User: Which sequence fits this backbone?
């Protein structure tokens, strides 16, 4: 990182630390016994203690406003599904890259009316940003109800929308209602924001919305919305796991030891705001497992970020290997020849197997499987646990117990659902 780039970081640090409205970061670093005045370059910056969601939650909302209250355009409420309680984050208007990309796409695909089904926090920031954006302020947004998807489907049909703006989870549960009352071929644009979309779920969506162009935004309400974007090239040619980093943030990938990962290696995504805002983030742990590599794109951007899911939700390290949600779903998609429409949970236990304490996977699945034992063996052959290793090898080497399959009728529906569940104490 050059001197010019570090100046942007220094501007944010000065704003956060010399702020007359909030002592949030001064109090944090004093508690962490870190001398923030020692930060003179990027190497020093990487020594700054990481910020976690719990620290934000424990601070009163008024105590984390870094501008006068009249400069706060709206308060964003997080969903609260990945922490003990929802968060209130103060936000102001930001002319962000992803809004410009979205405006261009809506015009390109001539989208006239979109049904928006979003959690309260995502909806509030979208309506605020749309109203402030010169090309989106007059765009009609029809509000659906996440708690009543049957009604939302009937609204979409009655108004004859041609776009849907929602989350992957909400779209999954909306489809059964919408297909009963509306021609899905009329939908020509779908924006999925919030949690990332797995490849298997993307293929599932495409099987229903055959005429739709899919656009993805990776969001985090703590960061006032979008934290990564996709250009036309990525949307048309790359898995929804791939994004471009934005100019609004500094991105770091932190390994399990808290060190900066090498280029292309996976770890936890940590972001720092590069814009003045009512609540700037300094080295915030997002909880996303990701890697960042050099990538010269036709859109002019020079990096690509690959996502592997939420740490603790879509990603679990056990027995020296990583279990990724998208790889579990890839394996299931292969076994069902690309047509897996059921639901599943992968439960991780430890048991004594041939006199050794080893991990054991129990795959609970809704699909009708005639021979669970044979299916388990095939699943082990298809489940990749590293770049060149499949679960089958670990079972053969007795590092994992054989996988068990359990057939179930259904699972509880929820907005953010943990798919890989550890029972190891």
Assistant:
């Amino acid at each position: 990182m050059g001197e010019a780039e570090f100046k942007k970081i220094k501007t944010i640090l000065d704003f956060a630390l010399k702020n007359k409205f909030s002592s949030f970061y001064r109090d944090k670093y004093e508690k962490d016994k870190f001398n923030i005045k020692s930060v003179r370059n990027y190497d020093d910056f990487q020594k700054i203690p990481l910020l976690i969601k719990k620290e934000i939650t424990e601070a009163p909302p008024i105590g984390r406003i870094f501008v006068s209250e009249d400069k706060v355009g709206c308060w964003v409420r997080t969903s609260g599904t990945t922490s003990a309680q929802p968060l209130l984050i103060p936000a102001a208007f930001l002319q962000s890259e992803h809004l410009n990309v979205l405006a261009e796409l809506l015009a390109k695909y001539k989208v006239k009316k979109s049904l928006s089904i979003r959690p309260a926090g995502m909806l509030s920031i979208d309506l605020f940003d749309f109203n402030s954006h010169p090309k989106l302020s007059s765009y009609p947004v029809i509000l659906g109800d996440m708690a009543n998807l049957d009604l939302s489907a009937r609204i979409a049909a009655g108004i004859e929308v041609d776009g849907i703006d929602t989350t992957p989870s909400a779209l999954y549960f909306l489809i059964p209602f919408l297909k009963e009352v509306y021609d899905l071929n009329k939908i020509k644009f779908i924006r999925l924001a919030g949690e990332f979309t797995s490849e298997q779920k993307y293929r599932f969506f495409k099987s229903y919305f055959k005429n739709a162009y899919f656009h993805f935004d990776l969001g985090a309400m703590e960061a006032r919305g979008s934290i990564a974007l996709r250009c036309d090239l990525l949307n048309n040619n790359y898995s929804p796991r791939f994004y471009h980093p934005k100019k609004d943030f500094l991105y770091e990938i932190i390994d399990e030891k808290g060190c900066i990962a090498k280029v292309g290696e996976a770890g936890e995504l940590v972001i720092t705001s590069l814009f003045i805002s009512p609540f700037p983030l300094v080295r915030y742990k997002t909880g996303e497992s990701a890697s960042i590599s050099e990538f010269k794109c036709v859109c002019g951007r020079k990096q690509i970020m690959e996502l592997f899911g939420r740490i603790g939700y879509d990603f679990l390290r056990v027995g020296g290997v990583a279990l990724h949600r998208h790889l579990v779903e890839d394996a299931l998609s292969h076994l069902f020849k690309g047509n897996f429409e059921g639901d599943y949970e992968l439960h991780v236990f430890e048991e004594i197997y041939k006199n050794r304490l080893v991990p054991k996977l129990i795959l609970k699945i809704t699909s009708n499987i005639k021979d669970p034992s044979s299916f388990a063996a095939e699943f082990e052959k298809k489940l990749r646990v590293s770049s060149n290793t499949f679960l089958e090898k670990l079972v053969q080497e007795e590092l994992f117990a054989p996988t068990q399959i359990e057939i179930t009728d259904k699972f509880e529906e929820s907005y953010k659902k943990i798919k890989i569940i550890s029972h190891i104490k």
Summary: The mean pLDDT is 86. The chain has 13 helices and 21 strands. The chain has two domains: 1-310, 315-422. Residues 315-422 form a domain with the GMP Synthetase; Chain A, domain 3 fold (CATH 3.30.300).
